[in-house]
Amino acid sequence: MKNLNLTEDQAVxxxxxxxxxxxxxxxxxxxxxxxxxxxxxxxxxxxTFSKEGRSVDxxxxxxxxxxxxxxxKQDHTRAFGFIPGPASKLSWLGDVMTQAFNxxxxxxxxxxxxxxxxxxxxxxxxxxxxxxxxxxxxFVSGGSMANLTGVIVGRDKVLSEDNRHLGVVYLxxxxxxxxxxxxxxxxxxxxxxxxxxxxSEFQIDVHRLQTMIEQDLSNGLVPxxxxxxxGTTNTGTVDPLHxxxxxxxxxxxxxxxxxxxxxxxxxxxxQRHHLEGIERADSVSWxxxxxxxxxxxxxxxxxxxxxxxxxxxxxxxxxLQDIDGxxxxxxxxxxxxxxxxxxxxxxxxxxxxxxx
Length: 356
Fold this sequence. Notes:
The chain is of the alpha/beta class. It has helices spanning about 10-25, 40-45, 55-65, 90-100, 110-130, 145-160, 175-185, 205-220, 240-250, 305-315, 340-350; strands spanning about 135-140, 165-170, 195, 220-230, 255-260, 285, 300-305. It is globular.
């Protein structure tokens, strides 16, 4: 790999920053959405690569003119976004710095300060949910990975290896499709899923939920996990979290709340009441790249008891056995070993006056 000459390539950096600055300031004249013309699509579809390559300037200019302009401008004044949202400029700046230093997020020895920051940010977010200091979590790529992590921990908490075939998971017809996908990934079959009907407000019908649980118990099955949603993709609906938590607690069922879209309302003094009961969940997924205005990708899975994450994911292979972690190694709290440090851009946003 060739090293960049900072003197020679300074103009390239400045050109890129100038383009970005113009892009962000041009929110009225340019269209909110642009699709690349057929000739550009054909060019990239058939692009080849050689050892000789091209100049850095040529490659950067190509990206600036033929790639980045042809997107949905989510921060455009005429882009009335729903799920995809704009990103804070401080977030993408934090992304640039984090990627420039190539910060590795697997464990303490790779980035001690960043590990401390991630743990602190997770703890602060857990407090907003209403969890105690026992809580733990990890930054992940998005709601799909967060939901996958949550249902794994729920399975491991309730089921043993001997009775996994008896486990049953309850979700609704409004549950995000990533949850169903996650359940299939970890070994559940279609017959182990119960799609609970919703009421006129598109919320889980708690009476039908309890009836289905009782029926499964009478058939010798093991109710394992309930998926509630705080902000559905279709309508933004929040399920009746207190009522669902009552049912989960009475039957010893893991309660996972998919808060990918709505959990950020916990930071709103006027809107957080819509999420009352979320503090009773066992695990919560939360997408910062939605209503916390972070660049893609940036999400969290937060669990009421950190030990449950460790029980599911902690491992010490030979090549890591001599690492002395001054803090929890985040590779023991989730699926991924190699991750970007998404917590750093989130810290930059939360710690600055931009968040307030």
